[in-house]
Protein 1
Amino acid sequence: MKATSAGAIAAVVALGISVVGACSNADRPACHPGEYVACPCSTGEGWAKCVSASFGYGTCDCSAGTPGLDGCAPPPSFAGVCTANCPFGAPCEKSASCVTGTCATFSNGSRCTLPCAVDGDCPCYSGKCGGQKVCKVQ
Amino acid sequence: MIARARARGLLVATATVASVASARAEDAPVVEVRVIGDRAEALQRIPGSGAIVSEKEIERTQPYDAAEMLRRVPGVVARQEEGGGQRLDIGIRGLDPGRSRRVLVLEDGVPVAINPYAEPDLYYAPPIERMRGIEVVKGSGSILFGPQTIGGVVNFLTLRPPDRQRAAIDVLGGDYAYARVLGMYGDRVGPVRWVVQAFHKKGDGFRDEAFTATDVFGKVAWDTSDTGQLTLKLGVHDDGSRSGDVGLTQAMFETTPRRATIKGDDRLTLRRYEVSLLHEERVGNDTKIKTMVYAYTTSRLWRRQDYTRTPISGQRYDRVVGDIDLPNGAIFLARTNTILDRTYEVAGVEPRVEHRFSTLSVRHTVEAGGRILGESAVYQQRQGETPTSDAGALQLAESHRTYAFAAFVQDRMAFLPTLLATPGLRLEHAAMRREVGRQGGVDVVSSGGSRTTGVIPGVGLTVGTRRLHGFGGLHVGFAPPRVTSAVNPKGFDQALSPEKNIQYEIGARAAPEKWLKAETTLYLTNFQNQLIASTDAGQTLLVNGGRTRHYGVEAQSTFEPGKLLRLGFALDLVARYNFSRAVFVGGDTDGMLLPYAPLHTATTALDFEHATGFGAQVAVAYTGRQFADPRNTVPDDGSGRVGEIPAFANLDLTARYRHKPSGVTVRLLVKNAPDNLYIVSRRPEGIFTGGFREIMVGLRWDWTGKAKDE
C-alpha cells in the first residue's frame, strides 16, 4: 500500500470520528419544567421551580415548604427508642442511630434532630433553631 | 464457454474464501479450558444443546458489548443497559437475567462472578474487546462446570497468543463522545508465545451516564516438555460510571424519554485483578491431565444518593424530579447518600483428567475432576452527608466466606460412531459463614453458618452423523442460595433450599450442505424451588418461591447463498428464533409468566464479504413483551417500576473495508439505526431505556510478521 493512501484513509477516519463524536449530550435542557431544586435563603431554605427547559429555574421561594408536602404536617409518632436509620424527631440514644446525624436531649427526651444556624434550617413543624444550634423537637 | 465461466466463478469463490481466511490466519492452539471445543464435530460430542459465537462473527459484527453477541444465541436474553457495556445481564430459557446470577459465566474456564457461590452477580462484565469467541452450553454438558447449573454455561474465549509476531492498533469514536483506543502485540520466542492487549474507552453515555474503562491483559503459553504446556494469564480491569439505581417514572418516559439520569451524582467504580495458570500434561495417547489454578479480587464502590417517593416532613431534600401531582410521579432526592463499599476475593484449583479407553466395542472418553474453591467478601455500608460523598459514617459492616468442594465424572460412550451416550454426575458442597460486626450504625456481634450439598446427575444422548444428528438429555440444575439470604444478619441459618430444577431437552442438528445448517431444540425445565425477590419492610430479599415451569423451542439456521450459487463473495444469512414460556406453578400467581421472560425472541443477520475487502452486516434483534412483576401487571403504576415492557427491536448496521496490503481496516457502525426508543428494564427502580442511535467510525491496523522456524 502506498503511504499516501494509508494516510488518506487515516485522515478520513479521523475526520469521521471528529464529526460523529461532535454529537453528544450538549443539548440537554437546563431543567425539566415543573421540577424543583432546593435553594438557600437568608431565613434558611426555599425551593425554586423550573420555569422552562431553556430558562432554567426561577427565583427562590423562601416561604415554600417541600413541594408535594401540604403545609406543615405533624411529626410522625414513634413507639419506643429507634436504633437505626432514625428520622428527624425519632426517640434516640446516640447520634449514630439518626439519619440526621444528631441525637440531642430535649424536655420530652432524646430525639433525632438537625444542626442549624437559623430557624429556616429546621423542618417547618420544628420551626425553631434552639440555643444549642439544633432544631427543636416538639 | 460455460465451462470457462464456471471455472472462473469457482476461482473467484476460492479466492474469496482464501482471502477471508488469510485475514484471520489461525494461530496454533494453546492449552485452554473449553466447554465445547474447536473440532468440527465438537457440537455433536457435547451432551445436549450448545452454541458457538465464532471469531468471524465477532469480527463481522464489531459489537458494542458482549450482550450484542450473546443475544444472537438461541434461548439467551442479554440486556444492554448501560453505555460502555460495563454490566451484563444474561438470562437463559426464561430465567431472570438480572446481573446474570443464574448463569455460570466463565472466561477461559475461570469463573467471573464476584463470588461464584455466595453472590453470583456479574458486576464485572468480560469486555468483548478481549474475546475471540463465546461458547454457550445449555444442556447436561454444564454439569462439568459449576456451581450454577440451572441456566447454562457461557465461556468467553480470550485472544490466543500468536505463533508469530502480530500487532494491532484500533481507534474507534462516535456519538455521545464515545472513544476507544486499543493496542495489541504478541510474538513467539522459542517455545514461549505471548500476547498483551490494552484498551481504554470512555464516553458520555446515552443518558449522561459517563463512563471510562481501562483493561489490560496478557497471556503467556509455553511448552514445558514434549507432552506438556502451560498458559499463564494476568489481567487488570478498571471501570467507573455514573450509574444510578433509579430510572424514569412513567410520565418522564412518555414526555422526556431521552432525559439524563436523574441521579447524576451516583457513581460505581470497579477494579479487578486476576491471575490464572493452566497446565496440561499428556500421558500417552489416551490421557490428558489438566490443572487450573486461579485467583481474582474485585473491589466495588457504589455511591447512591438517597431518595424517596413518599416524602416526610422534617427530612431535607435536594431536588424534586418528576411530577408531584401524579401518583408515584415524583422522586425526592435527599441530601445524603449511601456508599456500598465491597471487596471480593476468590481462589480455586481445578484438576481434571480425560482418559480414553475401550471396553468390548464401546469407546469411552471419561472426564473426571474436582474443584476446591474459597471465596470471601467484606461489606461496608456508609452514610454520606452529601450526595457526592465517598466517605461517610459506617452503618453496616459484615463479611462472609465460603469453602466449597466439587467433584464430577462424565463418560462419553461411543457405542457406534453414530451413537454416543454421555452420563455424568456432579457433587457440590459449600460451607458458608457470615459475620456481622455493625448494623444500623451500632456495633453488634453475630455470626452464623450454613451448609449446602447438591448431587447433580445428567445424561445426554446423540444419534447420527455430523451432517444430521439428534440429541437429547436431562440433568439436574443446582444453585446454592446466596449467603446473605441463607444466613440472616443475626447469624441464623434461614434454611433456604438451594435452587433445583430438572431439565429435559431434545433436538436435532443438520448440515446437509456446506451452505446450509439448521438446529432446533425443544426443552422443558421444572423448578422444584426457585428463589424469587420479595419485598418485606422495605427490603428486597430472596425467599423460597416454589415451583416454576419453563418450556419452549429454539431454532437456528444458516444459509450461505454465496457458496451455493458461487457468487464470488460471501453472503450469509443467519436466523434464530426462541419461544420460551416460563410460568409459576401453584400459588397466587399460578400460570403467570415469570418477570423478564419474553415469550418470543428472534435475531437475524445478513453478512456480505467480498475478496476486495468490502464487507457489511445488517442485524435485527427482536425481543417480545415482558412483565416486570410476578402478577404480569400491564398498567403502569406511575413509578415506572411495575407495568408491561413492550416488545422492541434493534437494527444494527456495519460496513467495513480492509485494505489488505497495508492491513488497514476502516469501519462504520450504526447501532440502533432507526433510533427506536424502548424500555429495556424497570429495575432496580424505574424505567431504563435501551441505547439510542449511535454512529461510530473506526480505524484498525493489523500487522503480521513472518512465521518463525521452530
Note: Chain A has two domains: 27-69, 72-138.
Protein 2
Amino acid sequence: MEKHQIQYQTVHFNLNGKDVEKTVDVRASLTDMLRNDYHTLSVKKGCEVGECGACNVLIDGETFNSCIYLAVWAEGKRIRTLEGLMGPEGELSDIQQAFIDEAAIQCGFCTPGFIMSAVELLESGREYTDEELRKLLSGHLCRCTGYENILRAVKKTMYRRLGKEMPTA
Amino acid sequence: MYDMKALYQAKSVEDAVVLRLAHPEAQIIAGGSDVLVQMREGRRAGAELISIQTLDEIRGVSMEDDGTLRIGSLTSFSHITRDPLIQKYIRVLGEAVDQVGGPQIRNIGTIGGNTCNGVTSADSASTLHAWDAIVELTGPQGVRRQPIAEFYIKAGQVDIREGEIQTAILIPRESYENCFGHYIKYAMRNAMDIATLGTSVNVRLSADKKTVERARVAFGVAGPVPLRAAHAEALAAGQPVSLDLADRFARAVKEDINPRDSWRAAKDFRLHIAVESARRAFIESVKLAGGAL
C-alpha cells in the first residue's frame, strides 16, 4: 500500500484572547485542533457534518461550526470558545448563569454551542424579537429541553444587558 | 481528521489556477459546507483538495464603473444579506440566501459554492437565474463570462473548465435597475432544510406603475437544474397590472417546468406549489415595485 505522506502546517491565531501557534496535520478540523491540542473541551463533537451546532465557536465575531472548518484556516483569526467566557476567579458569565437559572440545561451537550451563538447576538447590543431570536438560535439541536427554556435564558440576559425590563407575556 | 489525500492552499487567484492545472483531479473547496460534509460521508474520501477559502480578493460585494454589481464568489450568505448594495439593488437575493441552512451555515457557505455544486435546490440559484446573473470564471486564458443559465449543464454539473475557478457573480445594471423581486422557499421546516421548491419572481413596472414592463420567474427543484419559465414571462410582458394577470402568469409556468417525484414531494404537489408560489411572488413583487392590484 502506498505510504501516506502526512502534511503539516503551522497555524498562528488568537484563542480566547491569547496569541498561540501550533503545527497541525492539515487533515484536522478546527474541532480536532481545539479539543486535542488546546483541551478546550466545551467544543463538542456531535454530528460532525455541520448540522447540530455542538461544535460552534466564534471566529472573528461570527458563529461557525468548527467541525466543518479546517484547522489550517484559523491562521490569523480570533477564535473564542466557551472557556473564554470564564471570569478571573473562575466565575460564570451572566449568560451561563441564566442557562442554569432557567433550567436551559439538561444533559449539557448542546449548551456551549448555544451559548456561543447567544454571545454573538448579545454582544451586538440589539434588541431582538422572539421570532428573530428563534431564527438566530436555529442552528442548534437540543434533544432535552424543548428549546423554550433556552430561548427564555437568552431573552432574559438580552434584556438585562440592555438595562430594560423584560416584557411579560 | 478528514480523510484527505492532500491539501493545496491557494495564495491568490493566479495561484489557484496554477494549482488547478497541476492537480486536475483535486476538488476545489471554498467554505467547506458541501465538500467537507461529503468527505465525512465517504463520497469524497481520499480526495485532494485545493482550498481557495482564504482568498479575500474574491470576497465581498462591490459596484463596477458601468453599474454592474459584483459579488465575489467567496462572499458568505450572511454577508450578502447584510450588504448595503445588495439591500439596495437586489434585496431578494439577500432574503433568499438568508433561508439557507442555519446561522452558522450562512456564515461559512459561499455564493460561489452554492452555484458551483450545480444543485437545483440551491436557495441562491433561482434568484440568480431570474436576474440574469453572469458567472465570471478565471482560468489560464484569463477571464471568461457566461450567463448563469448556460453555466448549469445538468444536475450536479456546471461549466468549469480546465484550470478555472469561479471568481464572481455579476448582475448587470440593466438586469436590476427598477426591478423588485420576491423569493418563496417551500420547505418542511424553517431552518436546516432543503427547498421542496424555490420560486423567484421579479418585475419592472412602467413609470405610472400600471403596466408590467418585464416579469421574470425562475424555479429551483422544478427540473434537474434551476430554470426560467419563458411562457409566463412572455405572457406578462406589456400587460396591465391586475390580479387576473397574476393568475394567468402563474398558470403559464406549467408550460416550462418539469418537476419530478422524489421522496421530498410528488410531482403533482410540486406543480401545484409552483403555480401558487408564482402567483404569490408575482403579487408581492408588483407591490414592492409600487403597483396596486
Note: The domain at 60-174 of chain B is CATH 3.30.465.10 (Uridine Diphospho-n-acetylenolpyruvylglucosamine Reductase; domain 3).
Protein 3
Amino acid sequence: MGTRDCRHICGESSPAVGEAGKTGEWRDSFPVIDPEKCLLVRQNKPSCFLCWLYCPDAVISKTIPIQINMEYCKGCGICAQICPAHAITMVREEGLCLDETG
Amino acid sequence: MARKASIWILDGNRAAAQGVKLSRVQVIAAYPITPQSPVTEKLSEFVEGKELDAQYIAVESEHSALAVCTSASMVGARTFTATSSHGLAYMHEMLHWAAGARLPLVLACVNRAIGAPWNVLNDQQDSISQRDTGWIQIYARNNQEIIDSIIQAYKIAESIYVPVMVCYDGYVLSHTEMPVDVPAQEDVDRFLPPYKPHTILDPANPKNYNLVTLANPRVNAEGVLCHGYMELRYLLQEALQNSRETITTVGREFGELFGRSYANMFWENRLDDADVVIVAMGSLAMEAMVAADILREAGHKVGVLGLRVFRPFPKADVAKALKKSRLVVVFDKNISYGLEGATCSEIKSALYGNSVRAVIRNFIVGLGGRDVKARELVDAVNKSLLSLKEGDLNEEYPEWICAI
Amino acid sequence: MKINAVNMTEKEYLLPGNRTCPGCALSLAYRHILKALEGQVIVTVPASCLTVLHGMYPVTSVTVPCVNTPFATTAASATGLVAGLKVLGKEGLTVLAIAGDGGTHDIGIQALSAAAERQTDFLYICYDNEGYMNTGNQRSGSTPLGAISGTTPILGKQQNQKDITAIMEAHGIPYVATANASYPLDLYEKVRKARTIRGTKFIHVFVPCSPGWGFPFSDTIKIGKLAVETGWVILYEVEDGVFRLTAASESIAKRGSLRPLREYLMEQGRFKNITEEQINELQGWVNTRWKRCLDRAVNN
C-alpha cells in the first residue's frame, strides 16, 4: 500500500490524543484516590484542584470527584506528591515483568 | 504584449532589486556581503521610501536571513533574500530546510569565490556547492536576464513549491552597468499572481509543520497512510524532475507578455551546424559567443550552449542539442575537487547512454575573479581540436587555465 | 483577576498521550504556557525535548499551530512569523519562540540577541533543564558547576552556568522574567502579562529533568521548589526596568531566609561527585545573586 492518498507535500501534522500511543502502558504504578480524604469531595464545591493543576500530561479532569484518564496516565506520581490531603496513593501495577534485582 | 517598458541603465544588483520590487515581495531579510551589498541597500531604500510595501529585516547573519524567509513564507508572505559566497555557505542548513519544507523562496546568489584565502571576486563555487539542496538554480548571462529571471522565479517557485536560486556573476554582472528593459508594474502584476501558500498557520485549524518524521510511512488519526521521510524526499525530487515543464512554460508566457522568451533550459548559439560546441554558464556564456565568432572566422563550425538552468539539469535537452557534435569543450568557473568542473560532469552524464560520441574536454577558468579572455577560450578549443586529431580522447582530469 | 487552580480555564492545548517522560516539568510548564496564551499563538520550536513532546508526523500532541525550525534559528524563525503576519495584516496572535537551554544559551543566542535588538514583537521562552537532555544529557552553557553529564562524565562540569536572563535584560527589552514549572500559577501570570506587552519578551522557565538530573520522577515538583527555597532559582520579573520578586521568592525575601544549597544538590544524582569547594563556590554564587535581587527589590 502506497502513500499517494496522502496529499501532504511536506511534513504537516494534525493534533490527536495519544500521539505516542496508550501511554498508560508505560506505568509501573498507578494513582488511587481516597474520596474520603479528597478536599474537593469533602467540600463538594470547586476548590483545591492541585492534582489537576500539576498534572504534566493533562489526564486529570477538573470535576468533582476528579477522574484520571488511565489510558494515558504515565503514573509519574506528581499528583500523589502534591495532594495536600494525601488522598492519592501510588499502587504498583500487577503483572509487570520487571527485574526486581536490577 | 507589454503595454510599456522603459530602458534603464542598471548594474546587476540594481536590476535584481528592481525585479524584487516588481514582484511585490512582502518580506525581505538579508545580510550584507560583497558583492551583494548594494542589493540590500537598494531594497532597504525601496522599503523605507515606501516604494515597496514590505518588511525589511536587517538580520545578523545569512543563516537567520533564510530562517526569517522560511517562516515568513509559511505564514503566506512572498519573500526574498540575496547573498554571496560565505553567506550562501552559511545558509546551507536553511537551504535544505526551505526546500524540504517546500517553500517557494527566491534567493539571488551573486556568485563569488569562497575562502580560504579571502577573495571577494567572481567564480561559481558558492552556488555550485549548494546544488544538492533541492533548489532550482537559474544562471543569468546579463543584467536583463537577472531582472527577468527573478520575476519568473516567483512564478515557477509558487507553482510547484520549490525554492529558486537566481545566480549572477559578482562584479562581471553585479557591478557592471548595462541597458535593461524594466517591465511595467501592471504587466508584472498580470504575469505574476499573488502567492498562495500550501501551509496553514491558524489556531482554528492547527497544523504542526516539519516534526520528526519516521523512516517508514505512518497512519494519521483518520487512518490515512501518510508519507515516511523517504516519500517526502521523493516528492521533492519528483517536483524538480517535473519542473522543466513549469520553467519553460513560465519562460514562454514571459516571452509572450514581455517579448523576451525563456522557453528553453539553455541558450543556443549557432548549434544547428556546429560540430564543436562550447558549454559555459552565466556571463561566461557571453564570452564564449565571442570566442565562437573568432573560431568561426578561422573556419571551424563552432556553437555555444549557454546553460541557464543548472537544477533541474536538462539532460534530455542537452543530449539532443549536442547530438551532432564531435567535440564538446566545457568551461567551468568551479571545481568539484578530486574530479572536474560540475557542469562538465553533468554534460557527461547527459550524454551517457545516448548515441552522442563527442569527445568532452573540461577547462577550469576564472576562479577567484581571474579574468577570462575570449582568446583563452579560443586557444583552449584549438588545443582540444588538435588533441582530438591525435586520437587522445577524454582526459581523466580537467585542464586549468592558470599560471601553474 | 488573580489566577488560581479553581478559576483557571479547563481548556487544554496539550493532549494526553504525548511522548514526554513521566513527570516531565517541561510538559507541565508548556501546558500552562499554552493555557495562558489561550491557544492564540503560533509556536516556533528548534530541535529539543519539546520537539519530542510535539510528536511525530503526521500526528501532533498540541492543538496550536507550530513551525519547527533548525537549532540556531528559533528567534529568526519567530522574526519571520512576526514579519509575515504583519505584512499580511493578521493581528491578535502571539508569536511564541520556545527553546531549551542548548537552543538559547548556546547555539541560538546570536539569533535571539539580534531579534531582541530589533525589538521584534514576540515572546521568547527558554525552558531550562540545564543540559542537552534530548540528545541524552550533555553539558550546556546552563549546566551547573560540578554536575555530571555525558560530556563531563567523571569530574563534573568545571564552570558554572551563565545568567541568560541577565543577558537578555541587558538588551533593554520591556519584559524579562524567571519562572519555574513547580509554580505554574506564577508562570501562567507571567505569560499572560507578557502577551499584552509589545516588543521582545523573555521568560526563563526552570524545568527539572528527572532522567537527566537523577531524581525520581514523582519528585519533579519538589526539586523545583527546593531550587527556589535554596535560591538556586530566583523568581522575579523586570517590567520596563522595574524589578519585582514574585511567588515563593517574594515570600522568602519578606519572611525568611534561604535554605542551604546543599539540600538541593544532594537530592540529585548529577551532583554525586561534587566537591566541598564546588558546593562552597555555588553557595557563594547563590548568596551574591540573592543579595543583588534583594537590593533591587528594595530599591524599586
Note: The domain at 27-92 of chain A is CATH 3.30.70.20 (Alpha-Beta Plaits).
Protein 4
Amino acid sequence: MQISEAMDGEVLILSVQGRLDSNTSKELDEVLVQQIQSRPAVVLDFSSLEYISSAGLRVLLKAAKQGRAGGGKLALCCLSPHVREVFDISGFSSIFSIQNDRAAAVAAVS
Amino acid sequence: MIATESSLELVLRNDLAELDRLAAAVEDFCADQGVPMQAAYHLNLVLDELVTNIVSYGYDEGSGEREIRISLKREPAAVQVGVEDDGRPFNPLEVAQPDVDAPVETRPIGGLGVHFLRTLMDELCYRRENERNKLCFKKPLPQDGAAA
C-alpha cells in the first residue's frame, strides 16, 4: 500500500493505493490519526484502492469518530465498485460522505 | 500449494504477512477456473477476514508457528471452501450479528468479518473435530442466463 499527500486549498488529499487489509491498515491509521487532528479537512481519494477489508474500515471509523470529536471534516471519493460494495454491506456508506470525484469531495468538506 | 484441475490446497502460517500470498493464490485460482471477478473478490475478502481472525485471536501469545489450511474446489455452480485451524474453538455461526445501522458514535468495531461471511457466502457449516476448527461454505456462481 502507498499513501501520497496533496493539498487543495486548505484540504489535505490522501490518495491510497493498493490493498488496505489487516497487514497494511496500521500505516494509514498512523497517518490519519495525526492529520485529522492537525487539519481542518481531509479527503481520502480511493481511486487507486484495489481492496479493503474490515481492518481498513476500522481505521476509517476511528478517524470519523476522531473528526467528529475534534471538528475535523472527512470525505471519501472515487471508490471502485468492489470497494463500494464492502462499504454498502457493512453499513459504512451511511456514516461517511462518499463522493464520485475529488472536486465533489473537496466541496463537501469546504 | 497444490493446484489440480479444479481444486486448490493452501497451507498458511499464522502470520498476517501470509495475506498477500493468500490473495494471490485465490486470484490465480479464480482466474484459472473462470470464476467471475465479483465472486473472486468476495472469496478473497471472506478468506482474508477469517485468516486475520485466526492469526489475531486463535492462538495464545508465543504459541509458535502453526498451520491454517485453506481449500477451494470448483464445482459446476459454486466454489466450495474449507478453512481449518488448530487454534482455540471458534464457531462463527454463533457470533451475534453486528448492528450495521448504528451511528458513528456507537458503531461497534468488531464482528464485520463474520458479517461478510454470512452475507456473501451460502451453506455455512462448522464443526470442532480433533482439536481443530473446521469451517466450510460455498460461493454460488452466476449461471448462464442469470445476471452476472
Note: The interface with chain A takes residues 16-17, 19-20, 23, 37-38, 41, 44-45, 48-49, 52, 56, 100-105, 107, 109, 112-113, 115-116, 119-120 of chain B (CB under 8 Å).
